[in-house]
Amino acid sequence: MLAIYKHLLRLYPATHRRHFGEEMLAVFQELQADSTRIGASRQLRFYLRESGGLVIGALAEHWRQFLKRRLSVRNEFRFPKMTWVLMTIILAGVVMAIAKGEAISVSVPPMSPALPPIHPAHGLLSNWGLSFLIMYVIGVTIGGVVFFVRRSVGINASGEKF
Description:
The chain is an all-alpha fold. It contains five helices and no strands. The protein folds into two domains: 2-71, no CATH class; 82-153. Helices cover 70% and strands 0% of the residues. The model has no long low-confidence stretch (mean pLDDT 77).
């Protein structure tokens, strides 16, 4: 049964096996030596319980490591360069939609004579080109500050200090 238990230990992830494999094997050998004094039916239950526990423990450890890799927060600064372009395009689309909505609100007569006409609000968004330029400059400035602060502190792309 010891040979089967050693093979079942391979179900665990390699890191877990390296840390706990010998200890698990030693505990199993001690329990197996104690189980020789009990009856055959109890010994069979012991082997089934240990084998089942080992398989379930291996599955649980694989699941735990999967979640650890999947949900762990990484220190890496990953901000793809293409994101700036996509954010700019989205911002331009939003600003143009607002400008188009303002133009439509001016051209559509009110549906009820009791309602006054909708007048566009004059402000920064009325000149959408200027708004777009200001937002873009703010975004590039913040990105540049973050980039240079990370460089001056000495953090590389993987989040490690150099």
